[in-house]
TrEMBL record:
SbcCD cleaves DNA hairpin structures. These structures can inhibit DNA replication and are intermediates in certain DNA recombination reactions. The complex acts as a 3'->5' double strand exonuclease that can open hairpins. It also has a 5' single-strand endonuclease activity. GO terms for molecular function: 3'-5' exonuclease activity; endonuclease activity. Pfam families: Metallophos, SbcD_C. This is Nuclease SbcCD subunit D. InterPro entries: Calcineurin-like_PHP, DNA_Repair-Maintenance_Comp, Metallo-depent_PP-like, Mre11_N, SbcD, SbcD_C. Heterodimer of SbcC and SbcD. GO terms for biological process: DNA recombination; DNA replication. The gene is sbcD. Residues 1-217 form the Calcineurin-like phosphoesterase domain. The lineage of its organism: Bacteria, Bacillati, Actinomycetota, Actinomycetes, Kitasatosporales. Keywords: DNA recombination, DNA replication, Endonuclease, Exonuclease, Hydrolase, Nuclease. Belongs to the SbcD family.
Amino acid sequence: MRILHTSDWHLGRAFHRVNMLGAQAEFIGHLVTTVRERGVDAVVVSGDVYDRAVPPLAAVELFDDALHRLAGLGVPTVMISGNHDSARRLGVGAGLIDRAGIHLRTEPAACGTPVVLKDAFGDVAFYGLPYLEPALVKDEFEVEKAGHESVLAAAMDRVRADLATRQEGTRSVVLAHAFVTGGEASDSERDITVGGVAAVPAGVFDGVDYAALGHLHGSQTITERVRYSGSPLPYSFSETEHRKSMWLIDLGADGSVAAQRLDCPVPRALARIRGELEELLAEPELARHEEAWVEATLTDPVRPADPMARLVERFPHTLSLVFEPERTPDDPDVSYARRLAGRSDQQIAEDFVAHVRGAGPDEREQAVLQDAFDTVRADDTVREVAR
């Protein structure tokens, strides 16, 4: 069976101030063409179809167009909700849409109920594991402690239990939206840390032939059977080095996996340039970035006059301007933002406690802080789902 694996469309999202809807529509057209020309038997979309729980009307219209075009090809499509989606909204009408070959899987309770497709060699069971917010699903999966690994492991136990009841030789594909150990994150992904841990081990997916992952925006191979497709378009300058693509997976009669990366159309290259303003305006080597979307980091010791206006004269698609004067680490003028760069909310809070009282929090206090952050994050998720 030939499977096209994609994820993280984030329909409705902008890139800085650039409206990406046109580029997203071009991607949908590319997807449909790929399905038709490559003889794809099934499409899987591993979450974050939309960028937010209540997407703009234009994004909903684009999604509707995508569904009609995929259904028109007669090629089954399996989709799950991600942490950016409203599972309830995305899943509206799922029962009816099933009849058109579009299978929306947004309910955690249905993790062990697959979409079963057939090819010349027998059945392939597709299990949809939507994004599982630990605080919201721990009771459903009867886990003692709310954590990503525990709820995902419990969901996979249901998958393996169902698979064990099926005819021998049934192959299996799991769609999941999670942060798996070994994956590389980017700035455009929403933090899903719970209990101080966001990542789950790849071994959670043992027992299935292929795990089609979503959430991380870079295309990545965790193992030969566990892969991220990445987002089809860039959504932050941290993705400058990404090659935007989809995975074309050939699932053999014996469950073997052969994977091929297919590039996605990207509207414009990304570039990060760094240096003093006059150097950036004069450096011949930077000519190759003149048509790219640019993030410029200025290292001038004193902020120059009208830097954006001057940069745009050479780099007309400059979208982001950062000031980082070259200073020694002990310089008192080093910015607060630079001192906090790379530190988690938990670490910042612990540093604040140490600053206020002269000693950092003990283990009990660290646990209290972490529980507070987890509660806030869970409350935010509940509000997002309820909107």
